[in-house]
């Protein structure tokens, strides 16, 4: 692949107890690319993210990071340390800790027991966290227990945590679920801003959102790659229309229950 | 950690409280009888275990029902030294009864006090590291881990009972004379031992407090909240769990050594299933996730036990069972949780005029 | 040859008892994520129920009928333990769903109270239950004498297992139970009364514990702390077997029972236990969730 490739998934297959969630899926991601991954329910989108971040090991196929690192053999925390961040569908923050503490432990730093045991908060670190707090609009709630935040605020906190992690590849699973229209737009703009320095893969059901912010879209269907291209190309594709856009109402309905 | 300019009035009160508690702790020999002092010393040893247990249960969310074993192994290490000291070069009595003619090789180094103390910390720590290594790494956690710790208790206790010639069997190891040349029963030594115990308690408290306030402690709490999430941030929870479990076991071992000095006996029944789970109850009652609660819970429960269990043995068991149920179901954060709830509702009344939404304080 | 036959048979016998005890535990844990430490006391209740049945036969019925007390005591033990389980579920366990560690502690408290209660009623010393005469003796097989009592227990366990199988996999109630086990919220949405399913399942699990207690009376005297000897081993069966399927529990019980007997024969009782524990830890390196594992997509369940 080219110099600018950051993540390469080739012929990935994932089987759960005989059920093949992904069957020979390939996904190539460039540096500073914002990629949307769409497809009907059960297409294997979330599983694909799981494979990249190490939550699920591929049965066959390879996942290569930065052209040389074989991710399929690494553990989740190692993959995270390499620079692949993951945001889950349901906001997963640490509810009994304060917003500030959530950001503090997510912040990019050496994560060995010894370092963390004797770590002191540096002025520069505090500043970074405080800047992040402002960016995600939680500067007044830094001392709140994260569990007491609203759903949208939790989403923002998790995005903030992920940004402080400073990964090179961000994997986002339905980042705008549960957000208001205004927040959704803000998220979209943020993604474009982030993608100026990093690569992002977004799994999304909200077609409005995808249409507004996507440059390149990958469509999955039944664990396979169906179509890849710009939003216009994808929309023009007959097969996509058949399996996905034709059933748009289903997809929208499923989003509301997700 | 604390800088002078950060001392808010609240902090000052807290510090004053700690200072008063420490003063009371160290001056106790002035106004307690020898008997009471000895009891209190025993309770303080229990409070040390409770601190260690709280580190893993309260802060990391791992329930160990095996701390009786770590406590007991520490106690045995000290008991072996005391027994050899008392036997004065001859074979310890129970070994003769079991037909041994020579001191087993692994008993020999325990003639040294320093070695015994080292082992009292290392043996529990290594055992915990062993169990932790083979469980946390494979994500065996929650009740699975808890059940394994309980099995560890059973097999260790059976092993100690079964190897009578080496361990004293059911009777355990008892009959000590002196420690480091001083008579262990004399009031002066007892007072000294009390002070040592109190000092160790304060030291362990300070270490635990540092640990839970550090970023390491925050990662532990994050593991309690969502172990898998921690993984995707880039921490390896298994290593953190192993470290804190090992540390907790070492603390239990220290407590066990002190316990033997005050009580003068250790036997398998003092470290079995029931004592292990009672230790958890102390933490539960005092309040898991608060160090001071755990320590106070241990002292309070043991004081109550010494007051009532001999006079009303039946009633005590009912009480113990009842407290278990009530605390777990209705007071998951123990007395400390109750206290902070009362405090919170008071402050909330004042604040509710200004803010419509209830702010919850960080659970520290 | 005889030695091997006898050891295997003993292993099977121990397994069958472990299985009977672990069945109830595995089901309640799988279904409601509740660890019932009072299960040992339900066994004890079953055992004392048998003891009482025996006493009633002794005191009020003609001597010729005495031998049949045991046949009656099995359903009696089941029923009484079932009722205790039902009361326990409705008064306490229902508050502890999904909190395995808390449920473990609270039910340990319940166990403590029940033990003390038994001590107050029946006294602390063990009491003996006279086994019926038709279970005396044994059958000679490959040179070893296999006692009828142990054979009877194995048969009883097989029967209970079969009944459980039909209940879980063939009956309507069982289907509801499996639905709740796999997806509680969805089952509730579809109109399954999860409250009822939980209560029934817990009570049945307790009842099986009662049968286990009844079986234990054949093997020796019984006392208030009867259950505590078995409970940790039974939990190890659950850990080893995994949750969600009966077959896991069966394999777990067989594994622990047979290996325990073998190791104890080769070494001694205390070393044998250590070896079994090490084997379990080693096994979990290979399959951390036990023989059978249920997968879930959620991040932290």
From TrEMBL, chain A:
Key word Nucleotide-binding present in the record? yes
Q: What's an example GO cellular component term for this entry?
A: plasma membrane
Quote the CDD domains the UniProt record gives.
Answer: ABC_Mj1267_LivG_branched
Task: Please indicate which superkingdom the organism of origin belongs to.
Answer: Bacteria
What residues does the ABC transporter domain cover? 7-247
Extract the Gene3D superfamilies matched here: P-loop containing nucleotide triphosphate hydrolases
A Pfam family hit = ABC_tran
Alphabetically, the GO molecular function entries are: ATP binding; ATP hydrolysis activity
Keywords for this protein:
ATP-binding, Nucleotide-binding, Transport
Q: What range does the record give for the signal peptide?
A: none
Q: What name does the UniProt record give this protein?
A: Urea transport system ATP-binding protein
| Phylogenetic placement of the source organism | Bacteria, Bacillati, Bacillota, Bacilli, Bacillales
UniProtKB/TrEMBL annotation, chain B:
Where does this polypeptide localize?
Cell membrane
Stated membrane topology is: Multi-pass membrane protein
Keyword list, A-Z: Cell membrane, Membrane, Transmembrane, Transmembrane helix
Chain segments annotated as transmembrane = 12-32, 39-59, 65-82, 113-136, 142-161, 192-212, 238-267, 279-304, 316-338
Record's Pfam families? BPD_transp_2
- Domain of life, per UniProt, equals Bacteria
Q: Where is it predominantly found?
A: membrane
Protein name from the UniProt record: Urea transport system permease protein
TrEMBL record, chain C:
Q: Which family does it belong to?
A: Belongs to the binding-protein-dependent transport system permease family. LivHM subfamily.
Q: Which NCBIfam families match?
A: urea_trans_UrtB
Q: Where in the cell is it found?
A: Cell membrane
The UniProt keyword set, sorted, is: Amino-acid transport, Cell membrane, Membrane, Transmembrane, Transmembrane helix, Transport
Q: Which Pfam families match?
A: BPD_transp_2
- Give the domain of life: Bacteria
Protein name, per record: Urea transport system permease protein
Q: Name one GO cellular component term.
A: plasma membrane
**Membrane topology term:** Multi-pass membrane protein
**Which sequence ranges are marked TM in the entry?**
12-32, 68-88, 100-118, 151-169, 202-222, 234-258, 265-286
The UniProt GO MF terms for this protein read:
transmembrane transporter activity
Q: What is the protein's species of origin?
A: Paenibacillus catalpae
Q: GO terms for biological process?
A: amino acid transport
């Amino acid at each position: 692949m080219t110099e600018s490739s950051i993540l390469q998934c080739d012929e990935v297959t994932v089987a759960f107890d005989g059920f093949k969630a992904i069957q020979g899926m390939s996904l190539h991601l460039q540096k500073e690319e914002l990629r949307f991954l769409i497809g009907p329910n059960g297409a294997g989108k979330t599983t694909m993210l799981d494979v990249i971040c190490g939550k699920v090991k591929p049965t066959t196929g390879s996942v290569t990071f930065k052209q040389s690192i074989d991710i399929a053999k690494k553990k989740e925390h190692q993959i995270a340390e390499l620079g692949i961040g993951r945001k889950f569908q349901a906001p997963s923050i640490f509810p009994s800790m304060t917003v500030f503490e959530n950001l503090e432990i997510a912040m990019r730093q050496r994560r060995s027991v010894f370092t963390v045991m004797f770590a002191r908060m540096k002025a520069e670190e505090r500043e970074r966290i405080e800047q992040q707090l402002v960016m995600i609009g939680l500067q007044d709630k830094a001392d709140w227990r994260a569990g007491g935040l609203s759903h949208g605020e939790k989403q923002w906190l998790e995005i903030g945590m992920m940004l402080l992690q400073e990964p090179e590849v961000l994997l986002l699973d339905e980042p705008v679920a549960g957000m208001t229209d205004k927040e959704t737009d803000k998220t979209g703009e943020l993604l474009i801003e982030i993608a100026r320095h990093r690569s992002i893969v977004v799994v999304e059901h909200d077609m409005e959102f995808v249409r507004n912010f996507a440059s390149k879209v990958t469509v999955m269907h039944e664990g396979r790659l169906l179509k890849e291209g710009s939003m216009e190309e994808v929309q023009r594709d007959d097969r996509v229309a058949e399996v996905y856009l034709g059933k748009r109402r289903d997809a929208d309905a499923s989003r509301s229950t997700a | 950690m604390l800088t002078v300019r950060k001392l808010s009035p609240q902090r000052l009160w807290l510090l004053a409280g700690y200072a008063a508690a420490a003063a009371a702790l160290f001056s106790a020999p002035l106004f307690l009888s020898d008997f009471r002092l000895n009891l209190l010393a025993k309770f303080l040893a229990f409070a040390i275990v409770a601190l260690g247990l709280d580190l893993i249960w309260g802060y990391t969310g791992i329930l160990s029902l095996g701390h009786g074993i770590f406590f007991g192994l520490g106690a045995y290490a000290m008991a072996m030294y005391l027994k050899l000291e008392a036997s004065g070069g001859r074979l310890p009595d129970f070994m003769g009864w079991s037909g041994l003619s020579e001191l087993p090789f692994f008993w020999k180094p325990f003639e040294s006090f320093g070695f015994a103390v080292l082992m009292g910390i290392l043996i529990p720590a290594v055992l915990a590291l062993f169990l932790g290594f083979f469980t946390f790494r494979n994500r065996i956690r929650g009740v699975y881990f808890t059940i394994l710790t309980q099995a560890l208790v059973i097999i260790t206790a059976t092993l100690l009972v079964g190897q009578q010639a080496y361990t004293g069997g059911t009777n355990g190891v008892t009959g000590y004379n002196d420690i480091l040349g001083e008579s262990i029963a004399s009031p002066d030594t007892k007072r000294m031992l009390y002070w040592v115990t109190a000092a160790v308690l304060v030291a362990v408290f300070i270490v635990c407090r540092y640990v839970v306030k550090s970023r390491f402690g925050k990662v532990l709490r994050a593991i309690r909240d969502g172990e898998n999430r921690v993984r995707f941030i880039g921490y390896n929870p298994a290593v953190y769990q192993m470290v804190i479990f090992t540390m907790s076991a070492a603390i239990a071992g220290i407590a066990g050594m002190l316990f033997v000095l005050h009580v003068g006996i250790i036997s398998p029944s003092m470290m079995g299933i029931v004592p292990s789970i009672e230790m958890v109850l102390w933490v539960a009652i005092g309040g898991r996730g608060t160090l001071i609660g755990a320590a106070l819970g241990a002292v309070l429960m043991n004081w109550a036990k010494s007051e009532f269990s001999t006079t009303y043995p039946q009633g005590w068991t009912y009480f113990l069972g009842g407290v278990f149920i009530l605390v777990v179901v209705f007071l998951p954060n123990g007395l400390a949780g109750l206290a902070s709830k009362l405090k919170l509702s008071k402050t909330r009344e004042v604040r509710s005029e200004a803010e419509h939404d209830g702010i919850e304080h960080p659970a520290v | 040859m005889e030695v091997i036959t006898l050891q295997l048979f003993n292993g099977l016998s121990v397994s069958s008892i472990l299985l009977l005890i672990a069945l109830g535990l595995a089901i309640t844990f799988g279904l409601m994520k509740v660890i019932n430490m009072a299960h040992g006391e339900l066994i004890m209740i079953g055992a004392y129920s048998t003891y009482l049945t025996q006493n009633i036969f002794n005191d009020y019925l003609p001597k010729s009928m005495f031998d049949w007390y045991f046949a009656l005591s099995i359903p009696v033990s089941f029923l009484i333990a079932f009722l205790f389980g039902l009361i326990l579920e409705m008064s306490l366990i229902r508050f502890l769903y999904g909190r395995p560690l808390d449920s473990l502690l609270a039910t340990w408290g319940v166990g403590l109270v029940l033990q003390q209660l038994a001590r107050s009623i029946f006294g602390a010393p063990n009491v003996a239950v006279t086994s019926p005469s038709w279970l005396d003796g044994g059958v000679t097989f490959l040179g070893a004498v296999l006692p009828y009592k142990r054979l009877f227990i194995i048969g009883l366990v097989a029967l209970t297992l079969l009944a459980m199988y039909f209940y879980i996999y063939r009956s309507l109630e069982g289907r509801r139970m499996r639905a709740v086990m796999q997806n509680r919220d969805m089952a509730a949405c579809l109109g399954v009364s999860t409250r009822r399913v939980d209560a029934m399942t817990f009570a049945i699990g307790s009842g099986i514990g009662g049968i286990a207690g009844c079986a234990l009376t054949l093997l020796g005297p019984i006392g208030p702390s009867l259950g505590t000897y078995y409970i940790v081993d039974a939990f190890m069966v659950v850990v080893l077997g995994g949750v969600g399927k009966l077959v896991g529990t069966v394999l777990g019980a067989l594994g622990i029972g047979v290996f325990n007997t073998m190791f104890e024969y080769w070494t001694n009782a205390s070393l044998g236990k250590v070896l079994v524990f090490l084997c379990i830890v080693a096994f979990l390196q290979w399959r951390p969730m036990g023989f059978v594992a249920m997968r879930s997509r959620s991040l932290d369940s």
